[in-house]
């Protein structure tokens, strides 16, 4: 591998991690890594403005530190592949230190990807989700915003000697958009793993939008204090918690989608206690609106968690905050588990955070569907259930199997037309950050995961298309119009005496599987009729709903089946298809 440009050679500690590499020595062009033939090795300290080009391949061979006063720019479409190391050694990671900046601005068409050099193939018959986690470190950003630890600063989890925290609530660590971190979370010591994305003491001047962590061994995204805000976050199948906030975090999060899977623990773990005090200040006060949280219907303890109590949302140790327009579905045991509360009030009455953040607001309109109980609260935490709790009703999503595990074939997390998600929604704070969404959950009819999520790359979700859902039994005649869009979400049966008419030029896009794992298909039963008369100029098309660049591809849906009454050779004169 060639060496990266734009920084001085690494110090002795970095050299020991990188072997014979002269980490981050000048190569190719001085400040922009372009037009080189082999993969560029990233390792050591960045001490000059550095650009990673989408035209190059990059190997993250050890820990890279963007030093204070310098910046790292990563172009849209860039992929960085991290080396795997033995457990207990310093896992390759990208660390943006206090006073440094990262400018990683991808797009839906050209996301920025951090992954492993030995990334698995999730479509392989031998894919092992457990082996996919912990293959490298993660992305760590350190800032100067306030935290609640005594002295105002702390060392980040997974590293030593690298501090965060300060007094600048509006501190900026740069821009992170359309960035995805896959297969990370390497163990670096006993009970010490790296989160997929760590934001420690990061300030509100930092932009974090459209980010994803998939198959991390530890937490997906964790905020240690700070005031950073985040919009459009996806966390998939991590080994511990989905989104974790602590140490006085006082930021805002909107449009969060979390799938826990079978190996994960809590989708949310929110706590506040520092210095042994559940009322330490600043009190953690995450404001979370419009979240869809999908449990793995499992209560198996996580191998990575320091908290083995069950609960899809785990609120503890004096945290405050606001939680509105939240949907919890596929709950395994408890929707919300709360322990070790402090003096904060707990109710479904939203306060005024500009005057006090010593309260926890859980909207009574939030949906908690499934499980043994919506709430499990210890004696110090009365308030949430007594205030009206949450709605226990099916959120009516387009496609979400009851066993939404790592091996799920296909999902569509958007609500169906007329879903209860479109009623009884909460008004988010009007403060310039939150979007006023007229629905509960993370999605309207726009599937903002399409094109860049792990789920999209591996054909687990449809493209960002919308239309009338077709599934079930057609008991009255129906016409499909060429001017409308249709999604075949399950098996559609045209019963005897019923006619399905499909106009010339109509396109039907089919899902990969239905809620039961069966392939969607159009089935015209004996006595049923189909009138599908296209033309050369306006053919009728039945195809897959996944994004077009993943096609052509075999086995992406069922097919068209017509059953008739003509003679066959099977004994008895009839058979099953």
Architecture overview:
The N and C termini lie far apart (56 Å). The radius of gyration is 26 Å and the shape is globular. The strands form six sheets. It has a 27-stranded parallel β-sheet that branches. Strands 34, 36, 38, 39, 41 and 42 form a six-stranded parallel β-sheet that branches. With 577 residues, it is mainly beta. The protein is built from three helices and 42 strands.
Distance between the termini: 56 Å
- Describe the largest sheet: 27 strands, parallel
Helix-and-strand structural type: mainly beta
Mean pLDDT: 91
Per the principal axes of the C-alpha atoms, what is the gross shape? globular
Count of DSSP strands: 42
- Helix percentage range: under 10%
Unreliable stretches? 5-35, 298-305
Share in β-strands: 25-35%
Number of helices in the DSSP assignment: 3
Spatial extent as radius of gyration: 26 Å
How is this fold's topology laid out?
Blueprint: E1 2-3, H1 12-18, E2 32-33, E3 40-46, E4 50-52, E5 58-66, E6 71-74, E7 79-82, E8 94-96, E9 101-105, E10 112-116, H2 129-132, E11 139-142, E12 154-155, E13 163-164, E14 174-182, E15 187-189, E16 192-193, E17 197-200, E18 207-214, E19 221-224, E20 230-236, E21 243-246, E22 252-259, E23 268-270, E24 287-294, E25 313-316, E26 321-331, E27 334-339, E28 345-347, E29 359-362, E30 367-370, E31 373-377, E32 397-399, E33 412-415, H3 454-457, E34 468-474, E35 478-480, E36 486-494, E37 499-502, E38 507-510, E39 521-524, E40 529-532, E41 541-544, E42 559-562
Parallel strand pairs: 1-3, 2-4, 3-5, 4-6, 5-7, 5-8, 6-9, 7-10, 8-11, 9-14, 10-14, 11-17, 14-18, 17-19, 18-20, 19-21, 20-22, 21-23, 22-24, 23-25, 24-26, 25-27, 26-29, 26-30, 27-31, 28-29, 34-36, 35-37, 36-38, 36-39, 37-40, 38-41, 39-42
Antiparallel strand pairs: 12-13, 15-16, 32-33
